[in-house]
Amino acid sequence: MRLDMKTRKKVCAKIHKRYQKESKKGKAKILDEYSKTLNLNRDYLAHLLTNWEKSRIVTIGSKTIKLIAKPVPKGQYKSSGGKKRGRPEKYHKAFVSVLIKIWELFDLQCGKLLAPFIKSAIDFLVIEFGITEELRTLFQTVSAATIDRKLKHEKKRYRLKGISTTKKGTLLKSQIPIRVCFNRDERDPGLFEADTVSHCGMRNSGQYLQSLVLTDVGSGWTEPRSLLNNAHRWVKEQVADIYENLPFPMLGIDSDNGGEFINHQLFDWCIQNKVKFTRGRPYRKNDNCFVEQKNGDVVRKTVGYARFEGEKAQKTLADVYRYLTPLLNYWYPALRLIAKEKLPSGRYKKIYEKQVKTPYQKIMESPTISDECKAELKCRAANLNPVKLKRAMDEARDRLLKLSVNEAIIPS
User: Fold this and answer.
1) Reported pTM
2) Which CATH number fits domain 184-402: 3.30.420.10, 3.90.79.10, 1.10.20.140, 3.90.226.10?
């Protein structure tokens, strides 16, 4: 039975003198007994009993006043007239208003990713949003936890699930070795995982667009491309395009067992260009965990689950990825898992790197990348404005969404 507040106060008034006279062990016994009886937090009950009826003499002006710690009877408390007490709020409404605009513009990222991005792109954000010097100082010192707390009421997302369209490829499986995972000591830039994402909407029949996604295991560098369909030719051509335009060498490709990858065109191209080609185990999505994560975080988050068909939509989707790719790789920070610890309970604790960096920063710090590649990366990064890229990508995405195929939902 839960006691009311009046009864709790009567009990505290009876036991507070005995509590104040007891030794440390005696006080512990009283707290153990009465915290359960009164249904009060143990620390809070200790605070009440310690200070009950204790007095303090203070001087205000010329008057001496004796203050006694007692609970105020119900109905006798006088409010302060609605005035907020305590120190003034540091991250005020003006700051939150600008923060929400930045968060909405740059793909609703979490605080751990948004905080380092804001600090690195602050010069561009000041111009775009008219940020004052006071707000600039706040944005340069704000923590990830504060960002998440301030955006708590703005985060209203809907998680959707798409249709899997992967069809197994029966060719060449015996010639393509299986790779279960990338060991931590071999995660140098250049080893990519590959996958495709279908833009089929509510049905996977007919011809519809595909997105090819290549993700570098070591740095998180991501290259999305649009495909008219998952024909072998388009996959091979887009992989070759990524190979030629990458600012660092492509050393290997690891894919699932889909027929768009397990075919002679891509296999022969890898042999000719000395790119190591491996595949994961059937029905084991974690074998390609790095690119599987990007499928949702990059493709679905950007263009959603609508159905897209035809060459016009394919070219528009290519425009979206043309602006999105430099944003992902040069400006958006990415968390990286560095270790997993098994707890006594049997569960695993994931440990992430403390300093969140962009794929560009990780590649620049890699000792295996040549100085010529790093010079090329610096040259490309110097010509990028994240705000202009994001505005251009949003315009292209708006054009793409207008081309989506409307489907009637037939109730079952």
Assistant:
1) 0.67
2) 3.30.420.10
